[in-house]
Design goal:
- By secondary structure, the chain is α+β, with helices and mostly antiparallel strands.
- The protein contains three helices and five strands.
- Strands 1-2-3-5-4 form a five-stranded antiparallel β-sheet, with helices on one face.
- A hairpin with a 3-residue loop joins strand 1 and strand 2.
- The longest helix is centred in the middle third of the chain and has 21 residues.
- It is globular and about 50 Å long.
- It starts with a helix and ends with a helix.
- It binds adenosine monophosphate (AMP) and zinc ion (ZN).
- The site of adenosine monophosphate has 11 residues, from loops.
């Protein structure tokens, strides 16, 4: 993809603070970090969303995200980390090249991914379960 900033980072046409690289993916620092040590893990191949990733890419990205999680806990002394991945504009995805955010979390940082909702009715949980089970 010609105008994709993440493809440009993969090709070395744009600078990035690369943390680690595998055959199919790279991890680099987010330059607008939500918290200190915010890292993005992306496939080298340009695909927009999670569903387009191959099993091989998914596996490698998962392993790298885990490695980054370990590194932020040990190297930045954070208290935890969030793994966030958005698909589509409705989910808040801005860069249309699939990416996983590893966001270091600190006690009391008051970063909230979303507010918790009200407790669901039994009937609603049952119908949602039925709708999902047809497709898994
Ligand atoms: P999203 O909102 O999930 O699409 O996230 C896109 C992320 O990419 C944001 O957290 C941005 O701060 C980050 N970002 C955009 N451009 C760059 C760049 N050139 N280098 C590193 N991170 C970037
Ligand atoms: Zn791309």
């Amino acid at each position: 993809m010609e105008n994709c900033i993440f493809c440009k980072i993969v090709k070395g046409e744009m600078p990035a603070f690369k943390v680690v690289e595998g055959p199919h993916s790279i991890a680099f620092l987010d330059i607008f970090p939500v918290s200190k040590g915010h890292v993005l893990v992306i496939p080298k191949r340009h695909v927009k969303q999670l569903l387009e990733l191959s099993e091989e890419e998914l596996l490698e990205i998962g392993k790298i995200a885990q490695k980054i999680g370990k590194a932020v806990l040990a190297g930045l002394n954070c208290d935890g980390f969030s793994l966030v991945q958005r698909n589509g504009v409705a989910a808040g995805q801005i860069v249309p090249h699939v990416h996983f955010h590893v966001v270091p979390r600190f006690k009391g940082d008051s970063l909230s991914v979303w507010p918790s909702g009200p407790k669901a009715e039994q009937g609603e949980l049952e119908s949602v379960l039925l709708a999902l089970k047809k497709f898994v």
